[in-house]
# Entry
Amino acid sequence: MNCTSAIHEISSYIDGELEASVRIELEEHLRECEGCAIIVRQTQLTVEIFCNDKPVELPPDVRSRLHEKLKHKLHKSK
Amino acid sequence: MQYATLNVGSGFGPIHSAVLTTRLLAKNPKLSAPTPERIPSKIAREDEPLLVKAAKSGDAGAFEELVNRYESKIFRLTMNITRNREDAEDSMQEAFLKAYSHLHTFKEDSRFYTWLVRIAANEALMRLRKRRPNQVSLDEPVQGEDDLMPREVEDWGPSPEQRYAQSELHEILDQVIESLDPDFRTVFVLRDIEELSTEETAQAMGISVPAVKSRLLRARLKLRQKLDRFLRDRKPN
# Structure
């Protein structure tokens, strides 16, 4: 496997969705190619960091306005 | 890194979705906003299919229960897509109102949340298109392979989570994700942040499974690249 093919498989690889034969081929390439190995680690880490990031919270005023609108709609359609 | 499945230093391994799920559940704080006046539902909270059935047959309390369950996630989604609080709020409100109006069209062979995400993502994308008409092209195939291959690669050393305080890193990530094209950002948000499956993401966005996979690959690589540039330009104190 060359670097271009390896890069195309990164996403499926980090999701654990690669067929065994392709995964083995990719891992062989990663053992030999430090650049691709770094990209795989950094891409994994990037996904992790975004998943670990503080989530957007629903501000109380936004929530109140939503429920006001809903109440109006729900009561209107009764 | 504190997670055993991420072999940052020495090897490679898949990020298992179950691990991500556990981590996300652990990280997501409960809603801290005051509880609004609720219409009591006749249906138990645990049983979503029954809740959906009850809402469809006109139980307003059941629908409000569904809203309570997903409002934070839907706001996070619309905020992540639009990157604008006013648009995010409008999209969220419109999504729930439309969901209520069109509940009779919901086929119960899929998850209610996926159906809701589809409505909310469409609302958010519509507002984004209005605000930035030339930047959103979700209906067009992604062209070009040239940008996929990173040109310069350098190890990050200590991970960004070790290098920056949480609030500082949050600001960095905010800037990085905001600079991502909306068509890539939306796929990344649905797949990696909201943890929809590839099929659910395809369904929510109205695109094919291969298109989701292709955009997710590009989104992840672009985010890595943008984060890489950011980390190189901005040395820690």
User: Anything to note?
Assistant: Chain A touches chain B through 52 residues (CB under 8 Å). Residues 34-52 of chain A form the longest helix (19 residues).
